[in-house]
Amino acid sequence: xxxxITLLFLLLxxxxxxxxxxxxGKITSHKGKPISxxxxxxxxxxxxxxxxxxxxxxxxxxLTGQQLLVVSFMGYExxxxxxxxxxxxxxxxxxxxxxxxxxxxxxxxxxxNASSNNKTAVxxxxxxxxxxxxVGDVFGALQRLPGTSQxxxxxxxxxxxxxxxxxxxxxxxxxxxxPFLSTVGNTPTRGRYSPFLFKGVNFSTGxxxxxxxxxxxxxxxxxxxDVAEKDELNVSVMSVGGGLAGTKAWKKSxxxxxxxxxNLAPYNEVISQRINFxxxxxxxxxxxxxxxxxxxxxxxxxxxxxxxxxALFNKNVVFPDGETIENKNxxxxxxxxxxxxxxxGWKVRTGAAISYDNTDFRFNDFNTDNExxxxxLKANFNKRFSNYLQMNxxxxxxxxxxxxxxxxxxxxxxxxxxxxxxxxxKLGVRFGYFDAVNEHSIxxxxxxxxxxxxxxQFSLAYGEFAQLFNANRSLEPLNISSEKATHYVAxxxxxxxxxxxxxxxxxKQYDDLVRFDGNSSFESTNFTSDGFGKxxxxxxxxxxxxxxKNLEYWVTYSYLDNKRFSENFSQExxxxxxxxxxxxxxxxxxxxxxxxxIGASWGTSSGRTFTNPNQTxxxxxxxxxxxxxxxxxxxxxxxxxxxxxxxxxxxxxxxVFGYRYANAPDATGTFQxxxxxxxxxxxxxxxxxxxxxxxxxxxMLEQL
Length: 704
Description:
By secondary structure, this protein is mainly beta. 5% of the residues lie in helices and 54% in strands. The chain contains 4 helices and 38 strands. It has a 22-stranded antiparallel beta barrel. Strands 8-11-12-9-10 form a 5-stranded mixed beta sheet. The protein has a 4-stranded antiparallel beta sheet with strand order 3-2-5-6, with no helix packed on it. The longest helix has 16 residues, at 2-17.
């Protein structure tokens, strides 16, 4: 009892000696209107109150000296005010509106997202891997988006008049140096990596951020899944092989793996092939990703490997006695990335990647064994100073080691400025040093977007880009510089009620393109950097998920005016990979009664240029238009069991991608030729997919 009286006396004495201070003031918006219900607190204390209907507030505190007042209210930027309690003066707070991620303007010029949680996303990850004709290949599905050429004979990405090497692939921001399977003999390739491991794709066709370099035309950034919450196992039995994939989840970490085996020998026995495969394509692949969630960050480690081989023997007008081509490829790729928070509001994304690739290639009596090691180190720091201003700074280094070693070092910085939900601008610059050609580069980037209405916006982008030419040997004695491209992009985007319209025009100017004599850069001795080119075009994309129940579709059209004077061109001309017109339609229908998803895609493109030696001129002819109708069907046998059937080119269109001419004319003075066509008229795929998990409705539909 005496202790209680003593404690009460001490508290009373404290209040008499020191006293409680009264804190009062008023909270208004940037327009001068009172804000009711705002939360007002002294940082690291329980002292505070809620503002009244007229915006006023009042509370008492026993704290003294300099303190920090924190005021927060939904829809407004949190305000911080340092004040001295002893001054006992009214505090007036003017709050600024914060931008809303769901309604704010976003830069869309040249950028297309495939993400489940991005409001400007063109497609979702499920969309791109269930596209008919893509057969589960992410890059095959991207060829149905604006800006790409439908080069189904190749399989790689050709974007806005650029060849395949001008588009670079990344996993979680780290460069992938050999993203496509090795192939030969006009047989199309596909990506090495399974969509099973990725949650989204950022596909940028122009004017991309200063963070990305060494890509003249486009970048694709695959974003891997975060920490999984549940265990899962997937079994695949396919007409061309089989696969096993699964996930083990712990409290704050998870491990996911995917393994596949493909062998086309049985398939080739059933389906007639135009090419005589003495060793049909065979592939072993495995990949795994480990993720660990720390208190302030997320660590991801990815490891993937493939081994493939194939061989063929064909007779043609160039080799009437036949040509033998053999190819074996081993590829290992690993990266580790960390994304987390630092002190004072800074965030970091950093990572490292390493790649090993060995290709044993034989062409008749010629044999080469090419072994390459590549590496990529990268760090990016970000700070959001307010809801209106944020900044990125970063640095990276690319390392390549084969017969010759080289490094590319770069730094970058960009700032993003917002005005409410209606305006955003990003300014950046990238600095690079290419030791192989002893060259420094400065590459400015700029983009902005303005909201035109609740559902539409305009966006602009500009950027300068540089990329080293790959000559498969040391560049230093060749006296060449890096190749350059300047992008100008204008975009209009409308999105409302699950409908989207996207229209874009662009111009790309090439400078310092590498030229050489001879048939290839490997054989040539004379190199210059006096090449040039230009590409202009317009693109339309329309998507509708609402008009017809359970049916969604999208329509893409791209127009391309493309000419260049580069490599071994004898004059300025349109390259064979730059079709002027590309048009495609993709549809997906869910039939609830049958528990079946039916997909279809149709694509057509104008003819490709080729050189006919029976006529004068260079790239003087064009092939006919190409057409292909593709269908697929996914039937849910049960919630966790799927039967999947896919057929490409179901109408049997006999597309011609070009011609191969004899080296010398025949007795009549005519150069004979062979048409270059797909290895087979159609490709038919059948698979059974079974998922084992605690969630009894979980299946692999989104990975097909």
